[in-house]
Write a structure and sequence with these properties.
By secondary structure, this protein is an alpha/beta fold. It folds into two domains: 5-64 and 157-224, Ribosomal protein L1/L10, rRNA-binding domain (Ribulose 1,5 Bisphosphate Carboxylase/Oxygenase), CATH 3.30.190; 71-153, Ribosomal protein L1/L10, domain II (Rossmann fold, 3-Layer(aba) Sandwich). It has helices at residues 5-11, 22-32, 77-85, 94-101, 117-120, 124-128, 145-154, 178-194; strands at 19-20, 40-47, 56-60, 71-74, 90-92, 109-112, 156-160, 166-173, 205-212, 218-220. A hairpin with a 5-residue loop joins strand 9 (205-212) and strand 10.
Length: 226
């Protein structure tokens, strides 16, 4: 892949193979961001896992960023009223299912009560390939509608390891304070560590890199994260 002049100039400022303390890596990523827009800061972790291991969960970062998510809730009766009361953008049952079947997808995340999943499951092909299907593993199939909405509004984000054992997650914006970015990264990595499969031997996290949308990656010394 060919990179532009500004990218090459940024990458030439350091040895790409060196590892840096988290605080230093955050400072470098902020300094090397060169575009006019507010770039997203992303962390990438390479894990020591096999295909059979499902590393997947959600995390609420201490410092939110970006626009508030439009939350859709599949629920009936009291749970539907609870969803409306606590700020869900869209609430319904059969009406929303039919609307989605017709091609409407103007929302960012879907939550469902367990009793709705028999019907919501019929949307599997539509919602599944867009990552919008409610799932117990990500706390989006729940009876605690109030708690789910509150956490999603705070910025709860889903993460999962791909087939190669790599996890990507946006952790902030270049414009944020370095201390906020550092704390978001640390909270995310702490959550990843908790997901270590019991049968994994040796180091669970093989490498960590931080980068902005258009900038080069900076490797983080995992053992120095504290």
């Amino acid at each position: 892949m060919k990179h532009g002049k500004k990218y090459r100039e940024a990458a030439a400022q350091y040895n790409r193979q060196d590892q840096f303390p988290l605080e230093k890596a955050v400072e470098m990523v902020k300094q090397m961001a060169y575009t006019k827009f507010d770039e997203t800061v992303e962390v990438a972790l390479r894990l020591n896992v096999k295909e059979k291991h499902a590393v997947r969960d959600t995390v609420v970062l201490p410092h939110s960023f970006g626009k508030e998510k439009r939350i859709l809730v599949f629920a009936k009766g009291e749970k539907a009223e609870e969803a409306k009361k606590h700020g869900a953008a869209f609430v319904g049952d059969a009406d929303l299912i039919e609307k989605i079947k017709g091609g409407w997808l103007d929302f960012d995340v879907a939550v469902a009560t367990p009793d709705m999943m028999k019907d919501v499951g019929k949307l599997g092909q539509i919602l599944g390939r867009r990552g919008l299907m409610p799932n117990p593993k990500t706390q989006t199939v729940t009876t605690d509608i109030k708690g789910a909405i509150q956490e999603l509004k705070k910025g709860r984000i889903e993460f999962r390891a791909d087939k190669t054992g790599v996890v990507h997650l946006a952790v902030g914006k270049v414009s944020m304070d370095a201390s906020q970015l550092k704390e978001n990264v640390k909270v995310f990595i702490d959550n990843i560590v908790k997901k270590k499969p019991t049968d994994i031997k040796g180091e669970f996290i093989r490498s960590v890199a931080l980068s902005s949308t258009m900038g080069p990656g900076v490797k983080i010394a995992v053992k120095e994260i504290g």
